[in-house]
Amino acid sequence: MPLLFENLKETLKMSTIELSEQELIRRGSLQKLRDLGINPYPANEFKVNTTASQILTTFNPEEPNLQEVVFAGRLMSQRIMGKVSFGELQDDTGRIQIYISRDEICPGEDKTLYNEVFKKLLDIGDIIGVMGYVFVTQMGETTIHVKEFILLSKSIKPLPVVKEKDGKTFDAFTDPEQRYRQRYLDLIVNPHVKEVFLKRTKIINEMRTLFNERGYIEVETPILQPIPGGASARPFMTHHNALNIPLYLRVANELYLKRLIVGGFDGVYEFAKDFRNEGMDRTHNPEFTVMEIYVAYKDYNWMMDFTEEMIERVALALHGKTILTVGDKEIDFKRPFKRITMFDSILEFTGVDISKMDEQQLRETCTKLGIANDATMGKGKLVDEIFGEKCEGNYIQPTFITDYPVEMSPLCKKHRNNPELTERFELMVNGKELCNAYSELNDPIDQMERFQEQLRLSEKGDNEAMFIDLDFVRSLEYGMPPTSGMGIGIDRLTMLMTNSISIQDVLLFPQMKPEKRAEEDSADKFEELGIPAVWVEVLMKLGYKKVAQLKEVKPSKLFNDLCGYNKKNQLGIPNPAAEDVTSWLN
RNA sequence: GACUCAGUAGCUCAGUUGGUAGAGCACAUCCCUUUUAAGGAUGGGGUCCUGGGUCCGAGCCCCAGCUGGGUCACCA
After folding, report:
1. Spatial contact of A552 and A527, defined as CB atoms under 8 Å apart
2. Distance measured from the CA of protein residue A315 to the C1' of nucleotide B3, in angstroms
3. A517 CA, B5 C1': separation in Å?
4. Whole-number Å distance, CA A546 to C1' B46?
5. A445-494 tens-digit pLDDT
6. Backbone angles phi, psi at A278, to 5 degrees
7. A58: Cα separation from own chain's centroid
8. Distance from residue A8 (CA) to nucleotide B63 (C1'), in Å?
9. Of all nucleotides in the shown strands, which has a C1' nearest the CA of A170?
10. Shortest-distance nucleotide from A97 CA to C1'
């Protein structure tokens, strides 16, 4: 914390020397506006009465409506044609052209508002409000004829300028690092980005509507958990000062939702942020969103039907059809999805029947198939490896994989026909896991044994084995109705539904490495050496960013550099004496 | 983590066997009353990612590092 604070202090001290020419000009404009008595950041509410899309879709030039519009938006382009100007304003719904003529804005002798304010002191990126009427230009573009305008917020940093013509984009703002770090910029200049996030919201809303229609209750459960249960994953750790205990950011919310089923809610769901302290790549972000739902008196067969219904409905709500293009593939989300057991799947893709194998035989099979394995891996993990390696990637169309080995599903009820298996399914789409669901284990004795088995795995070296949550077991001892639960990765679902290649494209603020600034000392530190402020600025321009750096230079060279820079840039500062320069460095 | 590609103006990018740092847009000044990635003229703007090295001379070649992208591996 103190470190962050120090950095902030340094940053705030940054002088205008860091600013580009265009930024300096904009700050100059800001001052000129104030000098003209114009507040660049007014406090008043600005009541708009329309939006860009509303104007574009409803304006009727035959019987002109929209003759008194009040509109606000960001100025995205400005085209000045002498006494008349065009521009484009962008609001939440899109862009609309504006038309301004000097003599309407400035009916009297004083043309300052047009010549100075509109033409010179406004910049691309400024947010303005306009009052006027809608008409169609000779070029056929629906336009607001502006009778009055007001500056609502001045922008002092230039936007990337992206232009478009006939679907071709010019100078696109595409650098992924900048786009993700400065998502606000991405959203301003790349309209398709906003679309993705609107769709994401629509997906969530559609699911929520379905659950609410069924009478299931949306709940919130702890993010800070004393025992990070419900999934096999490495958690983030934190510490609670007052209680003086470690707390973990949740890796799942399953155990809490099932406690609620015990408590008498017959259907609960939560859109939950989960956190896993693992690698980051195109499909993994340290924090991600999962929807988990639990319904009493149901089993995993019912849940498969429900999951199909939910996903088909989302696809239809978003696209009006079930066949979507994802990358170079066409995926059909029409019900019903294919169903196959895990053993049959492995048999299909490897020709090996592993259904009767013990741990040793499985290990040999792995080796035979060229799959890395070691002594820490139990039966469940070995099967999981085979499936992950040989089968998973083949399921492009939505497919339910069912009946997982009991070892890899410690929270799942044993299969009604085979105690070696569990009543579990995962939904595979585009070669990736999308959903995971069980007939939930509600036998408390069995649950305790499964947890103990996890403990043994953990002692064997499996660092992902689950923690034991004794209170959860206690809740089961009071009796949980037979229940089916399902979890679905919202980020991955959104990637599929929006044809996004990377999880970063469906997260507004994906996790990034901290932005690094070049280290530099503040002006104060230079001034402490007795260097006048004007020369400190010159030193910075010359590339001396740290006091220590300065100490290594010969005074004579520094003296020459300073005087030379002064002369070359015609700063007109009186040169320092050579002795002064020497004294700074001592 | 491995391999690979990249880092040049506010943005998007050129840059010849190594020889004075470029374009378009943006910006500034001026001209222009319905333009369509708005036109014309002129102009300003650079730590060529950083640090070493080779060389008379490095944006370019070599080494190391930083940052990012991609692929693969790990996490699973």
Report:
1. no
2. 39
3. 24
4. 22
5. 999 999 998 888 777 776 667 778 999 999 999 999 999 999 999 999 99
6. -135, -170
7. 34
8. 36
9. B37
10. B36
Handedness of CA A195, A201, A204, A205 (dihedral sign): negative
Helix intervals (H) in A14-136: 21-35, 52-58, 102-105, 112
- Distance from C-alpha of A370 to C-alpha of A386, rounded to nearest angstrom: 10
Strand positions, DSSP E, A155-207: 163-165, 168-170
Q: What is the DSSP string of A296-343?
A: ET--HHHHHHHHHHHHHHHHHHHHSSSEEEETTEEEE-PSSPEEEEHH
Using C1' positions and the CA of A510, the closest nucleotide is B68
Cβ partners under 8 Å of residue A531, min gap 6: A539, A584
- Cross-strand pairs, A71: A130
Q: Chain-wide mean pLDDT for chain A?
A: 85
Give whole-number Cα distances, A65 to A50, A60, A99, A145, A351, in Å.
12, 6, 17, 13, 71
CA atom of A30 to C1′ atom of B49, Å: 32
Query: Inter-axis angle of helices A490-498 and A191-213, to 10 degrees?
Result: 120
Distance (Å, whole) CA A96 – CA A48: 14
- The phi, psi pair for A365, rounded to 5°, reads -60, -45
CA distance A144 to A137: 10
Indicate the angle between helix axes A300-319 and A490-498, nearest 10 degrees.
Answer: 40
Q: Which amino acid is at A247?
A: L
d(CA A125, CA A75): 5
Amino acid present at A141: E
- Give per-residue burial for A556-572: e unless 16+ CB within 10 Å, then b: eebbebbbebbeeeebe
pLDDT band for position A8 (cuts 50, 70, 90): very low
What is the structure's pLDDT at A64?
80
C-alpha separations of A249 from A228, A471, A473 in Å: 7, 18, 21
Please name which of A516, A421, A411, A508 lies closest in space to residue A196, comparing C-alpha atoms.
A508
Q: Is A466 helix (H, G, I), strand (E, B) or coil?
A: coil
Structure tokens at A467: 């923690």
Query: Could you give the CA distance from residue A134 to residue A55 in angstroms, rounded to a whole number?
Result: 8
Using the 8-state DSSP alphabet, how is residue A422 labeled?
Answer: B
* Chain B bases having any atom below 7 Å from a protein CB: 9-13, 24-29, 31-39, 44-45, 47, 51, 66-76
What's the pLDDT tens digit per position in A397-420? 999 999 998 888 889 999 999 998
pTM: 0.84
Q: Which residue is nearest to nucleotide B70 (CA to C1')?
A: A282
| CA→C1' distance for A65 and B32 (Å) | 32
User: Measured between alpha carbons, how far is A133 from A146 in angstroms, rounded to an integer?
Assistant: 7
Of A491, A495, A508, nearest to A184 (Cα)? A508
- Helices and strands, counts by H and E, chain A: 21, 20
